[in-house]
Design goal:
Elements (H helix, E strand, L loop, with lengths): L8 E6 L6 H11 L11 E7 L5 E3 L3 E3 L3 E2 L8 E4 L11 H13 L3 E3 L3 H7 L7 E2 L6 H7 L4 E2 L5 E4 L2 E4 L3 H15 L1 H11 L10 H4 L7 H16 L7 H8 L3 H12 L3 H19 L4 H7 L5 H12 L3 H8 L11
Parallel strand pairs: 1-2, 1-6, 2-5, 6-7, 7-11, 8-9
Antiparallel strand pairs: 3-4, 10-11
Length: 332
């Protein structure tokens, strides 16, 4: 995990004919807008291409690269947009630039069908990857050496990130901000985009049951989640949450997963980790107190969940992202 720095993080948007305008817009909105007046760290987003020739996109749009592929040697992160046609062959110089970036250890993220571009470059051979649920079988068929995960929103393997379809690209971009610059920076960007800072669950929720089957159950679960978020310090269990929602534990767990794409306890732990991140960033509360306020009960338990979710410890997270108490520059 990186620490805060006065130097802008350098992001390379990789462009070539066939990339999706939506993904280009997402990347540009997350890293191409100056939000330093609200406490978000500075970014340097460069649109890189084989040359400076405008790159055509659907809808009569085009993107003019402001840097050539040589700029990837300066990048802290390379982001590959998805494709309008997922089998679009990337130009050989683009594939070679990706290979060199990966060899240098530069993190690479692909949105949606961008996984096919990484697969063409051989970067996903023997690795786990995800793409839109409607394309997973195509990725397996054309790149059998890739271990295709069917239902994640995004995942990480060997310094390479891939994401599921369309909106999951937003999730991944915000996650990359979060792990580099902290939860508040990602939340500020998300608020300005009028989107959730993070979503739990998998894309399985969008394949079969995107909408709860019962309005009554949906209303009960919405109220239940709001209650749990307002009372994270309480020792919630599936049984206690089910009772509050007026359901049996089995029915509650089934409807909760159909609605959110994750289990009640996994959702609760994710919310507790997010709340603990904020307290570690913005307060001087001792770590045991942060654990108590967010429902982990003990510093040991919170440390275990931070390791599992963030690959760091609460103390290291605070050291990297803490603002002095009462002086957060992040707008609420």
């Amino acid at each position: 995990m990186a620490t805060r720095s006065e130097e802008p993080q350098r992001i390379a948007l990789l462009s070539f004919p066939g990339i999706r305008a939506f993904d280009v817009s997402v990347i540009s909105e997350v890293w191409g807008v100056d939000r330093t007046d609200r406490g978000v760290p500075p970014f340097e987003l460069r649109r890189t291409g084989s040359d400076h020739t405008p790159v055509p996109m659907r809808g009569g749009l085009s993107l003019t690269p402001d840097r050539t592929l040589a700029w990837l040697t300066h990048a802290d992160l390379v982001v590959v947009p998805g494709l309008d046609d997922h089998l679009t062959p990337a130009p050989p110089p683009v594939l070679e630039a990706l290979r060199r970036a990966h060899t240098r250890g530069t993190p690479i993220a692909a949105l949606c069908g961008g996984a096919f571009t990484l697969a063409q470059a051989g970067l996903l051979d023997g690795r786990r990857a995800i793409t839109h649920w409607g394309l997973t079988h195509v990725l397996r068929e054309h790149h059998p050496q890739v271990t295709v995960v069917p239902d994640a929103l995004f995942l990480h393997d060997a310094n390479i990130w891939t994401s599921a379809g369309t909106a999951a690209g937003i999730d991944l971009c915000l996650h990359l901000v979060r792990i580099t610059h902290g939860a508040e920076a990602a939340a500020t960007i998300a608020r300005s985009m009028v989107t959730a800072p993070f979503r739990t669950g998998t894309q399985a929720q969008f394949i079969e049951h995107p909408v709860p089957r019962s309005d009554r159950d949906a209303d009960a679960l919405t109220a239940l989640r709001e209650y749990a978020l307002a009372n994270l310090a309480e020792p919630h269990t599936v049984a206690s949450l089910a009772a509050r929602a007026g359901m049996s534990a089995r029915s509650f767990a089934r409807h909760f997963q159909a609605t959110t794409g994750t289990t009640p306890l996994h959702w609760l732990i994710t919310q507790r980790v997010a709340a603990a991140q904020k307290l570690l960033e913005l307060t001087d509360h001792p770590i045991p107190e942060v654990a108590r306020r967010t429902g982990f009960g003990s510093e040991v338990t919170m440390r275990q969940h931070f390791a599992a979710h963030l690959a760091t410890s609460p103390r290291d997270y605070r050291a990297a992202f803490r603002h002095p108490a009462g002086s957060s520059p992040i707008a609420s």
